Fold:
Amino acid sequence: MTQNHKDVFWRGIAESGCDSVSAISHRERILVLVGASGNRKQLVEHLKQRYQVIFPDEPGYAEGMLRDNPAGTSFDLAIVDLAGALRWHRRLAEARSHAQPVFLPAMLITSRKDLPRAMQTCDTLIDEFLLTPIEPNELTQRVAMLLRARRQALTQSTRLAYLTSHDQGSGLPNKTLFLDRLSQAIQDATVLGRKVFALTIHISLASVLKSLGNRALEEAGLVCCERLKAILGDNYSLARLATEEWALMLRAGASTKDVLEVFRSVQQLTATPLDIRGERVHISPNVGIAVYPDDAANASSLLDCAGAALARTERVQHPMFYSSTVQRQALAQIRTEAGLHEALAFDQFELWFQPKVNLKNRSLSSVEALIRWRLPSGDLVPPNNFIPLAEHNGLITCIDRWVLNKACESMQLWQTQGGPAQVAVNISAQHLVQDDFLTTIEQTLSHYDVPPTALELELTETALADLGQESLDKLWALRKKGVSIALDDFGTGYCSLNYIHKLPITTLKIDKCFIDNIVTDSADTAVTQTIVSLAKNFRLKLVAEGIETEEQCERLVRLQVETGQGYLFARPMPFVELQQWIGIADKLSPRDTKTPVISRERRTGCT
Ligand code: C2E
Ligand code: MG
Ligand code: MG
Structure:
């Protein structure tokens, strides 16, 4: 049997469990290698009532002898006469050896006269013989007997394969089967150029062993198996490597983020102690992770790497990656995520504002609210370092709501003090699709007594493109009430131009990447020019983002862009500084371009 065939057979059995019936799920097939002129007709008439009768006559059949059924062959019993045995000797011998370790019987039909010669020729190929003329009852019994023997062999083999591939207590796949599946996943990932993650989990049950003994340890191990199965479902090829150790894999296409999600699921085990013989046993899983192809080139080395990483996890509450680089990245991500929860709970967010100005006279038009995260150390974290993570773990909606409240609170103050006439708030798609999005906006506006016209919502092109009609309707409703809707980072998200007029937007924000080279790159000038005419045609307001130099500003004025935002005028700054800036800005002449206030952001260099 070739290694490949063996694998397929073995895997098939391992997957199908130890049910003997599943081993022969088809109607048993009898291959008749008897010449057409001999006893064939009589044989077939008799056999076809109970069995499927097949012949080697069709072209290409000889190859087919070696496939199809669970034992890797296309038949369960061969009946040969002397001529057939001589002709098919090699193929039949191959099929029988291919079926090993399962018995694949062959029966010889011969006349008494030919028996010695036949036995001499094909002794090793034959398990039983029947003398002609065929006596139907005898035929039936001999065939049934041979097939029964085959069925038993197949059942035993299936059972054996199951036993050698599964953990006895839990029924979970064991290391051998896990490695086989991991190899398969690695092969698939190699073709696709993707990664495969192997995870090993260790749950120390030493306290159970010490206090309650070996049988209690077994029990505790099984409870852990059940808990892991319940948490992980069938998605990760969970396997049991030892009493206190498990393995699982994330196949091609998975990312570090997915691995961390699995880790978090596994950590749920700590929430509920085990109940072992009336004792509450607290458990705390440790997880080691290795990545193909970065850490190892084959399944067993990959599992070894995950095991080596696991060995380093003693008393740490985070997953341990084999590679130190991935480990650093994952740790940073975990800490940021834990920190985000704290930031919300302990009010560590700050809302900063960046003016948008009239490009001709540099007067203040409105402001954009931009979030900052002030760590307890005093350092400032820019939004690009935590917004994507918040989007991934769903915290973004809470963050967006916090910003909305803070921005409206500020707007309420400005209304009485003569501040900006409008504040723009960035809204994530996840927030927008919430059922209560519309009411949240309306209630926040009315709570702070801010008119809808004083609020602008900025959505990126990508977020808008993915919205369903229901979400678009919410935006239309807000727009009708007077809320402005801006398409942020316009030009970077391949938004179809003939789609734009169907969106409920009032403003286009030309992305900074076009402004960067607007002075030197004629293509960027042309794009900006196109966006200007597009905005004119659809009666949309236009804002240029990221203006840093006088030359860029002049070029934009020439292109008739009215409003701009950028470091040239002001960086994002806290509320109090903005108040000062507004006071100074009133006194600035249009050509006095120095940034009036050096913001804390600039000093910490966090943007
Ligand atoms: P955005 O909405 O496109 O905001 C503009 C970004 O460009 C801001 O970065 C701003 O500081 C920066 N910027 C403005 N003028 C210049 C300039 O002249 N030069 C340079 N180099 N940069 C300039 P920031 O504040 O780091 O925000 C980055 C992104 O984070 C924002 O892009 C927005 O997508 C997201 N974000 C910020 N605050 C929030 C928020 O409260 N909620 C949500 N969902 N996203 C937010
Ligand atoms: Mg924005
Ligand atoms: Mg933008």
About this structure: DSSP finds 25 helices and 22 strands in the chain.
